[in-house]
Design goal:
By secondary structure, the protein is an all-alpha fold. Helix 5 packs across helix 7. The protein is globular, with a radius of gyration of 18 Å. The termini are far apart.
Length: 294
C-alpha cells in the first residue's frame, strides 16, 4: 500500500511537470520504476499505459484553456504514433545506449539556446504565428515517438525543444499542443508493447495509481501553462531540458566522468536555471510596469 501511494505521487508529480512544461512524465516515472528494479521494457510499458489516461485528460484541459493548435497536433501525432508503435515493438532487441549520449548533447545545446533566448529576449516575435511546415513537424514527431518508446521518454524534450527553437508558437501553445499529441503517441506505444510483450509482468495496480495521480494533476498543469508568462515558461523549459539531459549524459558516460565533476556541473546548471527564471520574472514585471506607465 505504501508503494502504491508513492507511485500515485510519482504519477501526479510527473504529469504536473509534463503538462506544464511539455516534457518530463516518462523521464520522471520511468526513473522511479527502474529504481524499484523493474525491467526496462516493463517499466516503459507501465509508463505508456498509465500515461494514456492522463494525456487524454491533459489534452482536453489544455484545449479548454485555449492552449492547443490542432493543426500542429495533427501533423505531430500521426508520425509520433507511428514512431512510438515501431519503437515499442523493437525495444526488446534494439539498444539505444550508444545513441543516448549524442541525443543528450543535441538536446543540451537546444535547451541552452532556448534558455538564453527566452531569458534574455523573451518570446520571439519575428516568426510568431507563421505556419510550421509538415516537412519539419513530421520527422520531429517520428523521432520523438520512437525515442519515447525505446528510451524511456523523449517525445516531450525532442518535440518541445524543436518547436520552441522555430520561434513560431508561444511556449504555452507548444506545451498544450504537444500534450494533446502525446495521447496518440503513448496510445500507439502501449499497443506496441502489448503486441511485443503481452500483458504478463505488468502490474496494473501500478498503472492505475499512476494514472489516477496523472489525471488529478493534468488540469492543474494546464492552468499553470495558461497563466505562467511565456518568458518564464521558456526559461523553465530550457533549463529543464539542460538539467535532465546533463543527468542522462553523465549516466551514459560509462564512468568516464568523476562523481565530483558530475555533481559540480549539475549544481552549476541548476543554479544557472534558477537565476534565469528569476531574471525572466524580473523582466516580465518590469515590462508590465513600463506598459502601465504608458
Amino acid at each position: 500500500m505504501h508503494a502504491l501511494a508513492i507511485l500515485g505521487l510519482v504519477g501526479f508529480a510527473a504529469q504536473l511537470i509534463n503538462g506544464s512544461l511539455g516534457m518530463g512524465y516518462a523521464v520522471t516515472s520511468t526513473s522511479a520504476l527502474l529504481a524499484a528494479r523493474t525491467a526496462p521494457a516493463l517499466a516503459a510499458a507501465t509508463v505508456n499505459l498509465s500515461q494514456v489516461g492522463s494525456q487524454l485528460v491533459s489534452g482536453y484541459a489544455h484545449w479548454r484553456f485555449g492552449n492547443v493548435d490542432w493543426d500542429v497536433v495533427r501533423r505531430v501525432a500521426l508520425p509520433g504514433a507511428a514512431g512510438a508503435f515501431t519503437g515499442a515493438l523493437v525495444l526488446s532487441w534494439l539498444s539505444t545506449a550508444a545513441a543516448r549520449p549524442l541525443m543528450a548533447v543535441i538536446l543540451i545545446l537546444l535547451g541552452a539556446y532556448i534558455l538564453v533566448r527566452f531569458t534574455m529576449w523573451g518570446t520571439p516575435r519575428g516568426q510568431l504565428g507563421r505556419r510550421i511546415r509538415s516537412r519539419v513537424l513530421m520527422p520531429i514527431g517520428l523521432v520523438g515517438g520512437f525515442v519515447n518508446s525505446t528510451g524511456g521518454g523523449g517525445s516531450g524534450p525532442i518535440i518541445t525543444s524543436a518547436l520552441l527553437a522555430t520561434g513560431r508558437l508561444t511556449p504555452r501553445m507548444i506545451v498544450g499542443s504537444i500534450s494533446a499529441a502525446e495521447f496518440a503517441v503513448v496510445s500507439a506505444g502501449s499497443a506496441g508493447f502489448v503486441i511485443g510483450l503481452g500483458l504478463g509482468g505488468i502490474d496494473f495496480a501500478w498503472v492505475l495509481v499512476m494514472l489516477a495521480g496523472g489525471v488529478l494533476a493534468a488540469p492543474v498543469a494546464a492552468w499553470l501553462t495558461k497563466h505562467v508568462p511565456s518568458r518564464m515558461l521558456g526559461s523553465l523549459i530550457g533549463g529543464l531540458i539542460v538539467v535532465v539531459n546533463l543527468g542522462s549524459l553523465s549516466q551514459g558516460s560509462g564512468g568516464m566522468l568523476s562523481a565530483g565533476l558530475t555533481s559540480t556541473v549539475l549544481v552549476g546548471a541548476v543554479l544557472t536555471w534558477i537565476g534565469a527564471v528569476a531574471w525572466s520574472a524580473r523582466e516580465h514585471i518590469r515590462m508590465i510596469r513600463a506598459d502601465a506607465v504608458r
